[in-house]
Design a protein that fits this description.
16 helices, Beta-Lactamase, binds magnesium ion, 16 strands, about 625 residues, binds adenosine-5'-triphosphate, single chain, Helix Hairpins, alpha+beta, five-stranded antiparallel sheet
């Protein structure tokens, strides 16, 4: 049973006062009891003394003392007067054998009167023994005894009986006002305790109601406790904490709405779950993928057991690790289905909302600073949207590649046009006979200029043909092919070229490298161009190394490096331009072809070179 604070306080004060009353009452009762016993003793002793004096006189005057005592009217009247003495029940004189000689009740003369315990002995005992003698031993009589002496000879005993029953009644009368006073004190103590509790508990009630208002989310709850004690201090603390809490709540509400609006605008579908797998929040994109009535929001209410989203969230809840990405196809049987309660899983509406390309789902474990998992974030990304982004990137990369190729072409065309203008000007001069027309027409010189113009035009035509070749979409015949087989196939040509200038060739392409997805003829031509360029950069011999290795993200890297002349820093960003060459007799097409081939294969190419030390071309291509 739970007692209220007020009840406990009242009970505590009342029991303390009650205990004090009981203790004091005990002391009082024992004191009164003792006084009553002593009074009885004094009265009995007074009576015994009177009897003693009379009995001695009577016994001294008569030779038969017993007969004289029995018949003496003075002694009889003293004995009979004992009935008027409070609490005294009898007074008697007995002989040595306890046979009554004289008694306040005349009929008992000659009877045997057994001796009773001595009242004096009881008065020497502890108070509780005295109380027990009064209360516990029902109707008991104690005696005051005094020997009767004739000279030194004891010839009888005076015995005064004191009734404990009468003493108890006497005591009861004396105690009644004391008991009434004690009860009144107890009542007063309870009342005072109640009033005290009321005044002490009022501030506590105020604080309690303030706390419950705060708990309900009320803002700016303030307590008015104008006290100068500890409770007043607590009221002050409460007001400070309440103000702080209100400020924090307002800030959090602002942050939450900002966060929600950010998450709401995300392209990705995002949902948060508790560590027990209960849905806390889902942004609009995610709501489209969930059943329209998500029940209690547990995982079982949202998805079928094999649904990738459910599997990932369950795994993250269990091991506290992030999982995914995992792809989900809209026609997956785990996605299109019905939940146990007959509601559609995200199969109908969700499949319509989801992109036909499917989704990529992943989970992130959200942890507190102590590393405990506090939630799980589920992100679902539309693969169709990803594909759009990817193709946009590829398109811009292709544009960049094209502009790289055409940069060289524009330069060439400009040079050719410039040359033709000069030669046309010269032809005009030759045909008109010098600048002033005074010289004869020099036909052979004019036809030389025309020949130069014609050859420049041819070159321009070739150049445009070459450019068309580059820009025309070419069909790729992609297949799974190993790098080792490609390099092996071009080794006879490379070795022949290497031998001419004394170049040492090393091939390091393990056979167990993952296969590439490539057009073999095109890729072989590109690798040959790189190898031939390397040999041409080492006319006085050197080392050529062709190496392959698997790299992360499902790629294979091919390196063609030499110890040749290297590329000047100012030429590094031009080497892939169409028609850029520094080699006498070179066409400047080789590296452009390599660049285009790598682009068509969705790969990447980079070059590192130090003049005088050598050059390395690094090509990364996707695996099959
Ligand atoms: N391994 C290399 N070492 C040094 N310079 C190189 C190397 N590979 C290419 N180059 C530089 O890049 C330029 C362009 O090379 P590219 O292969 O496109 O043309 P080319 O070799 O000059 O002529 P071709 O069209 O006959 O191949 C070269 O002229 C050369 O200056
Ligand atoms: Mg070349």
């Amino acid at each position: 049973m739970r007692l209220s604070l007020k009840t406990r306080q009242v009970a505590g004060v009342t029991s303390i006062v009650g205990l004090a009353v009981v203790l004091l009452g005990g002391l009082y009762v024992s004191g009164i009891g003792r006084v009553r016993l002593e009074e009885s003793r004094a009265r009995g002793q007074f009576l015994a003394n009177a009897i003693y004096h009379r009995a001695r006189e009577v016994a001294a005057a008569n030779p038969d003392a017993y007969a004289a005592l029995r018949s003496d009217p003075g002694l009889r009247s003293i004995l009979e007067s004992s009935v008027y003495s409070q609490n005294v029940t009898y007074a008697a004189i007995v002989d040595a054998k306890d046979v009554v000689i004289a008694h306040s009740d005349a009929e008992r003369v000659g009877q045997h009167l057994p001796a009773q315990p001595d009242l004096d002995t009881l008065l020497g005992e502890y108070p509780w023994r005295q109380l027990r003698a009064i209360y516990a031993e029902d109707g008991r009589t104690l005696e005051i005894q005094q020997p009767l002496l004739a000279g030194d000879v004891r010839f009888g005993t005076i015995r005064i009986g004191v009734s404990m029953l009468l003493t108890r009644a006497d005591l009861y009368l004396a105690l009644r006002p004391a008991v009434i006073t004690a009860l009144a004190a107890l009542l007063a103590a309870s009342l005072v305790a109640m009033m005290l509790a009321q005044s002490l508990l009022r501030p506590l009630h105020l604080i309690r109601s303030g706390l419950s208002r705060l708990g309900r989310g009320e803002f700016g709850v303030m307590l008015d406790l104008p006290r100068q004690d500890e409770l007043g201090e607590i009221g002050g603390f409460f007001n400070v904490v309440s103000a702080q809490l209100s400020a924090d709540r307002a800030r959090l509400a602002g942050e939450k709405s900002t966060l929600e609006s950010v998450v709401d605008r995300l392209e990705d579908a995002v949902a948060f779950f508790t560590p027990d797998g209960e849905l806390l929040f889902a942004n609009p994109a995610m709501l489209l993928l969930l059943p329209s009535n998500p029940g209690t929001g547990t995982l079982a209410d949202l998805w079928l057991p094999e649904h990738p989203c459910r599997l990932l969230v369950e795994q993250t809840c269990a091991d506290g690790q992030s999982h995914g990405p995992m792809s989900v196809r809209a026609d997956d049987p785990a996605v299109v289905g019905w939940l146990t309660d007959g509601r559609p899983a995200d199969g109908t509406a969700a499949a319509e909302a989801a992109s036909p390309d499917g989704q990529l789902v992943m989970t992130h474990a959200i942890k507190d600073p102590a590393g405990r998992i506090v939630g799980v974030m589920l992100v679902s990304r539309d693969l169709g949207y990803l594909g759009e982004v990817q193709s946009t990137i590829q398109y811009s990369r292709k544009l960049a590649a094209l502009s790289r190729l055409t940069a060289g072409v524009a330069h060439e065309i400009k040079n050719s046009l410039h040359a033709m203008i000069i030669h046309l000007e010269l032809v005009k001069q030759e045909l008109s006979g010098g600048p002033k027309g005074e010289a004869p027409v020099d036909r052979p010189a004019a036809s030389t200029h025309v020949a130069v113009i014609a050859s420049t035009l041819r070159r321009l035509d070739e150049m445009l043909q070459g450019l068309l070749k580059f820009t025309r979409p070419e069909e790729l015949r992609l297949q799974s092919v190993t790098l080792a087989s490609l390099v092996e196939a071009l080794m006879p040509i490379v070795s022949a070229e290497a031998q001419k200038s004394g170049v040492d060739v090393t091939v390091d392409c393990p056979r167990d490298l993952p296969a590439l997805r490539a057009d073999p003829a095109m890729l072989q031509q590109a690798l040959l161009n790189l190898a031939l360029n390397a040999c041409q950069a080492m006319p006085d011999g050197g080392r050529l190394r062709i190496a392959g290795r698997a790299v992360r993200d499902r790629q294979v890297e091919v390196v063609v490096e030499d110890t040749g002349a290297g590329i000047a820093p100012e030429h590094l960003d031009k080497v892939f331009n169409l028609y850029f060459t520094t080699r006498p007799g070179g066409s400047g097409i080789g590296l452009s072809m390599v660049y285009r081939t790598v682009q068509l294969h969705d790969g990447e190419i980079e070059v590192q070179s130090s003049p005088g030390k050598g050059t390395a071309f690094r090509v990364t291509l996707p695996r099959a």
